Amino acid sequence: MDYQIEVNRNQIDVREGESLLTALTRNGIKVPTLCHMNRFSPTGACRLCVVEVEGRKDLVTSCSSQVEKGMKVSTNSQRVLRARKSLVELLLSNHPDDCLYCVRNGHCELQSLAEEMNIKERKYYGEKNTLYPDYSSPSVARDPAKCVLCSRCVRMCEEVQVVTALDFISRGNQTTVNSAFNKGLNVSTCIHCGQCIQVCPTAALIDISHIEKVQTALGNKDKMVVFHLSPSVGASVAAELKMKSRHLVMQRITYALKRCGASRIFNLGFASDVNILEEANILKDRLENEGSAVPLISSCCPAWVRYAEDHHPEILDQLSPVKSPQQIMGTMAKIFCAEKHELDRENIFSVSVTPCAGNKYESSREENTHKGVSEIDAVLTVRELFQLLRSFGLDLAQMNEDDLDEPYNEASAVAWKHGYSGGKAEAVAEQLFYLMSNGKKEKFKFNPPKNMTGRRETKLNIGGKQLGFAWVSSISEAEHYLQHLKQEGRDDIHYLEVMACLDGCVGGGGQPVSRGFEMSRSRKKICLEMEKLSETKYARDNSGANALFKEGRLEPGNELAEAWLKPVFTDRSSD
Amino acid sequence: MTWSNLNDTRDFLISKVLLNPDRDADTELKKPLSYIAGERIEKTLIYVGMATCGRIAGAEKTYQSIRTYLAEHDIDAELIEGGCMGLCQAEPVVDIQVPGKTRLSFASVTEDKVQLLLDDVLNHTLPDLPLTGQYKSPILREWEQVPYMEEHPFFAGQQKLLTSNCGRIDPVSVSAYIARGGYAAFADCISRFTPLHVCEKIEASGLTGRGGGAFSTGRKWLAASRATSDQKYFVCNAVESDPGSYMNRAIIESNPHRLIEAALIGAYATGANKAYIFVRKESVLAGERLEKALEEARSFGLTGHDILGSGVNIDIVLKRGARAFICGEETALNKSLEGKRAIPAFKPPYPPERGLWNKPTVVNNVETLFNIPLIIQHGPEWFRKTGSESSKGTKVFTLSGKINRYGTVEVPMGTTFDDIVHKIGGGVKNEKAFKGIVLGINSGSFITSDNLDTRVDYEDLNRIGGVLGSGACVVLDETVCMVDLAKFFTAFFKKESCGQCIPCREGTARMLEVMENATSRPSENNSFQTLERFKGVMQLKGLAAVIKDTSLCSLGKSSPNAVLNTLKFFRDEFEAHIFERKCHASVCTDLQFYYIDVDACTGCTACFKKCPMDAIIGSPRYPHFIVQEKCIACGTCYDVCKFNAVVIK
Amino acid sequence: MEEDLGHFFEQFPNKKREDLIPLLQAIQDEEGYLSEKIISAVGRYLDISTNKIYGVATFYDNFRFTPAGRYHFRVCHGSACHVAGTGMLIRELEKQLKVKDGETDKEGLFSLELVSCIGACGLAPVIEVNDQYYTNVTLDSLKVLIESFREKENSAI
Q: Are C43 and C76 members of one domain?
């Protein structure tokens, strides 16, 4: 600590150069904020974090003020409390009064603020702006009437995800967050990553809900409802509930879903293993084939794929021609279950539970439906999973455990790696190492750098060659990296893993909302834990996955492989 | 001596005047310069006031008329599209100077008066047309019995320092400007003074920002000059959008070169090699004249690379605003220049530290800048001689509203508002009772009859709880409703709020609703509305306090001023609207009541048929009656009645 | 579309963000308004998201996204004009032309724009229609003016 300042008549320790807000928060003094986001520079826009500083005429925003020696601050004087309360009252005066019918009822930041400020009357009556919802996107629903103009989604979409699918339109009281000419998100530059939902304080941005679809299917006797649980979801649930017996989280969720009427619960991690095996194979082929474009770029992230189609059609042939784990799983499940139970593929309802909002978009892509039968019929984000279980009256904290269903119940440690940035690159590298080591007993060392975000690279000696593996998270990093590779003319990177969400799926657009990105860290920790506890270390040791792979079901020429397992990337850059 | 060759003129002016440090002592220069400046002339000079105020009054037609006359009579005269000398009242203004005699300034010269004017004056006779006066001159013969312009009551109380060229010279001519002393200050700066020295001169003068901020200009420049950076910028804020003022635009149209010179000096002093002049797009003429003036300046080598051989490089770029009042705030202005939404940023850091593209940037107002060449030329002590103890220099106002003589006025700081209204402005129009002056929309402060002796002085105004503002000075009389005016100002802020911060965005909307409730039609049945109206007004002070306390920028902070000041100075009017539901100035039409005069009504049923609310009852040939509860005061009955039987109270 | 706008793009060869507003201004000066196609084309040229461009353009009052009417009323609504009674004229215009500030009527005949301050305060109220200034406008003279435009339109048909 560098020195002390006085806050509310007590001394607190501060560091030179830090913002007042950081210092207060670290010392346990809570100041409300709305527009503030960790990892983003402060704008001082909402004014909620104002405090009184001796010597300054007006109240100052703590997010944009630096600590100074001799500072005397009051965070709860009458003047400050009245100001904060009035600001929230002003927000409420232009906000719909329908909390009871709202998706965020009970976990809305505006509700929390109103409660904290002890607001008990409708002080300001005024005309509320009339704005209409937009349900055009397959992943993200917008209700601008509930927007408090905190700027978080705009900044996320512009600064981190680059595409700026939403921006501030008009001025003053007429300002809205919208796309150009009020067109729907689906014709905008949106890549459906869902990061905007993640950071939205109210229900202005929410999931396109598939809950009703799923509930209806569960209630339909003729339908066989199959759930595909992503291991990342397990990590999220364990983190959210602060579970002690984390290693059983997948079984807990299985138990709960079975009680809802689900026929089968499969482990999406199985498909992750298949995906890794296939991808490493493809990489090996490309490396042996002189003249193939490098790097091979991962394609399991639907938002990234959409971004590439929109802005970089020139790299589409570098995208890995393997479908994402979600789509592989959906395909497998429909075929397996249909065969086993002599059912029509149409009567199987396949639901994937993922931390990804983009998966909803992915499931709706043209190439993922064949003659009316979709590989995935519905996608539930982690948020929707909790909602579904609540509506069925099931409390995960009190569930027992049930095993996931064969034959897709096994998943190696590698499946957990798919959940965070750098994990997939490591898994592919390891599998490639195995393939090219010809049985030599060499130890594989990945050596990734310590930090979690930004572009990372590592060079590995595999099969006598120096191979470069890189991984980026967030579209801004992906864009920078692609520019970097082009400008420097680099050909020493052979595999690039891209995850559109910061930190990877642990920070995915379908996770429970948090704007601090703190949860990503705890979820990743749990993923790492589960990796260590996994009995099966490598994808190739996943007997089921390996068998499937070896059976040649994924070989080209196979009807299945052609129609159901080959991804289609379309140049959308002129749209 | 004629100067027909522009190149000769240029070489002469550059080498003998600009690059000559002893120019003032050199007597050989006086005569040629007086020719170039248009004081000594060889052929008749006709100068038509064609700033925007003149054009709207019809000066273009006057100009064409004169042109036609000169062609028809085969007269070789110099015809100039000029600027405005400040008395916009007199537009269209035509100044005529016949060789050897002083310059005369005629008023209200519409195109039909041109023949009479020229017929007489060209023959050295005075026509029977409004003549404002003659300009004094030590070398020219005077017209008999013609008052002096300088002694005209409008001009007598003024001190035209920075507007000295307005309405006198060809606005875009760089030669005329140099001949009257222009660009000498800049030439001296780059050849004799260091940038730091220039900053210090400005600081010593005590010049403060005239856009309303009133911050020490010199200190701003010093901060930028001290900042270390590979790139610095200098920005001239010519996007003045106060709805009550246009003087920035008027002085740019009349003397764009002074602004260019000031920008060059400022860029040099702060170490910027690029200066932006950001002018309103709607000020079409100002933009055009600046473009032409820049071209001329460029042709004289006064901008660009290695200016006048000094090694100094300064480029001036003209950019046009896209209309948003908030662009007047310096951080928002910078964002607009960068091609973004003009959303203000929190300060500190201040623009001289981190401005345009995060580089040190100084943003100065037009009027502030007009002072710069004069301070450099005559020295900071000269500047300090004008003004009051705490406020140095002059202030330019746009005097308008219910005043007899309106226009652009430059007075020394310390002048009382009483003098401005009654001496310079000639008192309230149509002999109505004076109610007050509103100074600028940001200040919202009012000068009432109780404090007319307040001086144009920052501290004086502070004492009465107001601010000077950018220079709007709108005079109000008994026919103006203060509540309606406050509503107008509040509506302005609501429209112009950038929307970034909660207090201003939502707060201005709520305040406007309170004001609208105060001036809207009372609905007897709706007691809820009445309750809301009272509630709104009582909460107004608290809401205003929060908006002032928490808004991010000065627009937000000053948005409640209009309402608060109306409550303070005109409480009785406010109460009449709220409690009596009456507007005594008869402005708020919603509070007016329509009655039918039974004596005048013939029962023609015209109003009965047209009333959209069926609020009129009556039979043919019998006087009709308006049911107040149903009436919405649309005025249709008043419009259709041919017998003037509908009375509005 | 790009071909039509080529001569505008040529004025801004550096494709910088700071060129956005001047480029939009240049295009609107000639085309009269900014259509969707124009905004998309500008976005492609400057490599900026359409939403961002729309967000910038809608912030400023000068930009319009629908064409102006054949008779475009520009009313000065500065402080001096307001105290001279422009408020009443604006209400009349809104009633008769059936438009609000910034709008064009359904037939594309009339549109309204409020500006401040034109600078003819002593001649207030001031209204400009298609580059022609009308000063000292009263309610009656305004009604006559609107009627004259309507008649002109009808006789033209």
A: no
